[in-house]
Amino acid sequence: MVTPLHEGLAGIAKLDPVNTACALRELFDLDIPKDGDAVVASPDLTKIQPTEYRADGVLLYSEDGGRKLAVIVEVQLKRDPDKHGTWLAYIANVRVRDKCPACLVVICKDSSTAKWAAAPIETGHPGLTLTPLVIGPDNTPVITDIARAVGNIGLAAISAITHSKHPEINIILATLVDALASIDSTQAQEYADFVTVALTGSAQKEMERLMTAQTHRFQSEYAQKLRAEGRDEGRDEGRAIGEARSVLRLLEFRKVEVSDSARERILACTEEAQLYLWLEKASYVTSVEDLFD
């Protein structure tokens, strides 16, 4: 089953194979080709067998000399003994399909699952044992230094997800958001959204707050969706009421307290220019008083 965490973590790998390679080199000293192409290959690992094998992500690295390496990315949320056989099939099918060596990287959010995933898998053939490369809280650095985050955006994003329960998670997320300002705005937006969907609870709320408090450049699809829902909801009652409800929904989503008098003032407004201004400010203000300033 594909979960938001799968989409977030696998999305990061597929979004930026180059930075993912940097993260893998730092974590495992993996001998990934540095020159040449880095592309996202199809994660469909079905061969001739009737069973469908589909990994969360597959990255294919190559260089001019012809050397290639496939990296299979798998997100594991809990222990699943059936995955031992599946992971072996992934590697075998990728080797056949792409005609190159392949390795398996498993990403886990908690230490217990990471420890289980890192255990050697005996195939039964002498000398043939699969030991997955595991990314988890215990071997992923806590990145709170902006320079380091800028130097390896992929690792900084993984750090934010695997350390979502860390006492300094707010600093980790703030560091990541600041570092995203150093890359292309479209890619930064995608990174931010992938991390957000992979997080849960207070960490996800903090990531949303940081994104809206920065600039609209990092505003996630969630805030945009709330705006659209508000407009749709108010369409039958006029554009003004739709915009007013969008303002209230966005403030509610960001946990900004709205008094009864402030709510009445927003809903009573019929000037679209004023409502558009409030809607813009609702993305970053910390109090309803700031909205009206």
Q: Could you characterize the architecture of this molecule?
A:
The chain is α/β, with parallel strands linked by helices and 293 residues long. It has three domains: 4-135, no CATH class; 146-219, no CATH class; 222-292, no CATH class. Helix content is 54%, strand content 11%. It contains 14 helices and seven strands. The protein has helices spanning 4-15, 17-28, 82-98, 111-117, 146-151, 153-162, 169-180, 185-198, 201-214, 221-234, 239-253, 260-268, 272-281, 288-292; strands at 38-41, 57-62, 68-75, 102-107, 121-122, 129-130, 133-135. The protein has a five-stranded mixed beta sheet, with helices on both faces. The chain has a two-stranded antiparallel ribbon with strand order 5-6. Strand 3, helix 3 and strand 4 form a beta-alpha-beta unit. The chain is elongated and about 75 Å long. Mean pLDDT is 81; it is low at 215-220.
